[in-house]
Predict the structure.
Amino acid sequence: MLTIGCHLSSTKGFLHMGREATSIGANTFQFFTRNPRGGKAKALDPADIQAYQEYAKAHEFPVILAHAPYTLNACAKEGRTREFAWETMADDIQRMEQIPGQMYNFHPGSHVGQGVDAAVELIAQCLDQAMSEDMTTTVLLETMAGKGTEVGSRFEELRAIIDRVKYPEHMGVCLDTCHVYDAGYDIVDHLDEVLEEFDRIVGLERLKAIHLNDSKNPFESHKDRHEKIGAGSLGLNTFLQITNHPKLRHLPFFLETPNELPGYAEEIALLRINYKE
Ligand code: FE
Ligand code: FE
Ligand code: ZN
C-alpha cells in the first residue's frame, strides 16, 4: 500500500486533518506546526489528539509529518534569530511528543555569507538544544534547492550536520524531488545513481520521507518553484519511478504541489493507480 498524503492546514486540528486526508484518498499528511511565518503556536488540545490517534489507528495511518515554519533560520548571523530558531524548534518538538513517534521536518537554513562550515556548527548547536536523548520524534533535514546561501543542497552538508549532533539516532532526511533536481541531482535520467550517491554519503537508512513536487524550472536552476505532478520539468514518469522504486516504495510521500484539495485528490489517485502492489 502506497503511503501518500499532502500538505494540509492545521488550523482545525488533528482529527480534522485526518478526516480531510481520508476524503482525498490519503493515508498520511503534512502540516505546519504553527503559522509558517513564525509566531506563537496554539497549545495542542488533548481531546483532539486522543480523537486523532483513535482515528489514525482505525484508518491505518502510519506516521505523519510536521513541518517547521520555513522562516526559521538556525544558522542566521543574528543571535536573536538563532535563538528564535531553537526556541521554536524546542517548543515544536515538545508539542510533537504529545503524539509520540511522528516526524518533524525543517529547512537547515541560509548561512548568509558565514560559509557552510560555520552554518553546520550553528545548526548542530540548535539541534542539540532542542532535541533530547529520550525523544520519540524523528527530526528530518530537508534537502534544499540551493537558493541564495541555503544549506543542505548537497548531500555532504546534510551528512556533516548529522555527524556533528549529539543525538544522531533521532535524525533523518526528507528528500524533496523539486529541490534535489534544482540542486543538480538528476533524478529524471539518473535516479539510481542519485540514490547510490545518497546512500554512500548519507545512508539510505536515514531517508525517512519524500516530498513529491514537480518543478517549474529546468535542471539545476536553484529556484525552488513547485509545479503540479507531471506538469513540470520532472514529468509524470519520474514520479512513477520514484513511488515504485524498490528502495523508496515503502516511504511516506507528501505532495506540496500548487493545488487545492480536489487537485491533491487527483494526484493521489494517479499515483495510487500506477503503484505496483
Ligand atoms: Fe519544506
Ligand atoms: Fe519540501
Ligand atoms: Zn520548496
Q: What stands out?
A: The longest helix spans residues 79-96. The chain is about 40% helix and 15% strand. The chain has a mean pLDDT of 97. Residues 67, 107, 142 surround fe (iii) ion (ligand 1) (CB under 6 Å).
